[in-house]
Amino acid sequence: MELSPNVERIQYAIRDIVSTAKEVEKKGKKLYYFNIGDPDKFDFDTPNYLKSALIKALNEPFANAYSDSAGNQNLRKAIADRQERLWGTKLNPEKILVTTGVSEAISFIAASMAPSIEVLVPSPIYPSYLSYFNFYNINPIQYNNDEKNHWYPDIDDIRNKLTSKTRAILLINPNNPTGAVYPPKVVKEITNVAGENDLLIISDEIYDLLSFKDNFKSTASLTDLPVLELNGISKTFLSPGWRLGWANLRDDDEKYTNFWEAMAKQSRIRLCSNSPIQIAVSEILNKPMDFLPNVKKKIENRALYFVKRINEMDGLSVSPPEGAFYAFPKIEKKIPDRQFVLELLKETGVLFVFGSGFGELGKSHFRSVVLPQEDEMTIALDLVEKFLKKIP
């Protein structure tokens, strides 16, 4: 079978490295997983009231039939209500598309764009964006996030990267992989650039309620320009395996109607997202999230411990995360980041993700989750510290 050359452009360092880890594990090495942002792999769990809602939903009329391709109507209304309740933005439920996680929404976006156009994307970046854009022959132009300034976007660099082919600017806020939470002033500066250059703003906000200081503001709440937001329940509701996300377009002047219809067409050929889960989420999406403050405090405390330990090590440094559940340490020894991660894995069983898998500015870094309990984190970081001492 002849293969599409586009497949060669797909890379996903977060999971690609797991195959190597499994080989190490087969040899009897205990592994310490710090690679995948899945809180349910640690001592976090999906809230009971969400589980109960799904059990109840299974017995609802038509729950096990196909839903509308764009999504269950009650769920789309609940998403619109959520965004207005949290951020004051008014959405048209008809401009909400329920997807199988944010990953499917990213695919819909990339596949709807004409080949060879350019999208300004942050660096470091969540790698799915690079793979999807490259797969569909979209050119992702990486703008710098400044490590010396809390990993916030460099507005001057964004302006310098603009060309006649630029059609959109992507924000990931709160940020994966760095844990940065962009101040509203910074977001407004980015939206100003978009407005001046007639660009679509794409804002990935899957970690919106996981900012430690509650200082996140939704992009659409900070501008009247068209904004395509991506979100879902994987992170804030501790349910990544449920694969329920959405895209919502706030486009008062209907400049992007054709683009939205291109995304909707793709939703139709894949039929629909999981119907019972949609019904369950529609019932709970706007209920009080009493579990969330404790979850955020646990993550923040573990992030603080991780940062303290890393910054005490000779050869590593890290900017403290402000949200999500990641940190992005810098490797200050003369060793490539991929080599560092692979040798560390084989010698100690500690599994991080090499930073070069997150774009140009990811080089000489690695990404770690800050989800493990402190006891396990201590064991793993002690092994990292011993490993570092062997590197010149």
**pLDDT < 50 runs, ≥5 residues:** none
Give the C-alpha Rg. Answer: 21 Å
β-strand amount:
15-25%
Question: What number is the mean pLDDT?
Answer: 95
Q: Give me the count of strands.
A: 15
Tally the helices: what do you get? 13
What class do helices, strands and sheet pairing give?
A: alpha/beta
- Count structural domains: 2
CATH topology of the largest domain: the name is Aspartate Aminotransferase, domain 2
Neighbour order of strands in the largest sheet: 2-9-8-7-6-3-4-5
Largest sheet: 8 strands, mixed
Q: What would CATH call the homologous superfamily of the largest domain? A: Type I PLP-dependent aspartate aminotransferase-like (Major domain)
Q: What does the overall shape look like?
A: globular
- From the 3D coordinates, which CATH architecture of the largest domain would you assign? 3-Layer(aba) Sandwich
Work out the helicity level.
Answer: 25-40%
Which CATH C-level class of the largest domain is it? Alpha Beta
Measure the end-to-end span.
47 Å
Summarize the helix and strand pattern as letters: HHEHHEHEHEEHEHEEEHHHEEEHEEEH
Report on this model:
- The protein is built from 13 helices and 15 strands.
- The chain is of the alpha/beta class.
- It has two domains: 139 residues, Aspartate Aminotransferase, domain 1 (Alpha-Beta Complex), CATH 3.90.1150; 235 residues, Aspartate Aminotransferase, domain 2.
- It has an eight-stranded mixed sheet with strand order 2-9-8-7-6-3-4-5, with helices on both faces. Strands 11-15-14 form a three-stranded antiparallel sheet, covered by helices on one side.
- Helix 8 links the parallel strand 6 and strand 7.
- Helix 3 packs across helix 10.
- The chain is globular, with a radius of gyration of 21 Å.
- The mean pLDDT is 95.
